[in-house]
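ENTRY TYPE: protein
CONTENTS: sequence, structure tokens:
***
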Amino acid sequence: MTTDRRIALGDVGRLIASGATLGIGGGPVMITPVALIREVLRSGARDLHVVASSTGGFGIDLLIGAGACASVEFAQIVLNEFGPAPNFRRYAESGRIRCLDHT
């Protein structure tokens, strides 16, 4: 007997608490789980520890820009041909986010 562990997208917010570790897959621009990220932001969770698998971009930049991240682990966070991820760069350069670079 298999247990179905799927949840509705609208239920994501109640499962994400402030201070949680959140893994985000996808890519810099395409295949980013934007609907999931929107629900995380709507939950009001803060001080998240985000792990990019392996390259982060648009979605992680949204989380950073919204002030939801305390730290981010990454190989790179870019927007491909559109250049660097602006929120990531601004927060990293000012020291407002802890960066764990795994390049």
Notes: The first helix runs from residue 12 to 15. The beta strands are 21-24, 48-52, 55-56, 69-74, 76-77, 98-101. The helical segments are 12-15, 34-43, 58-65, 86-94. The mean pLDDT is 93.
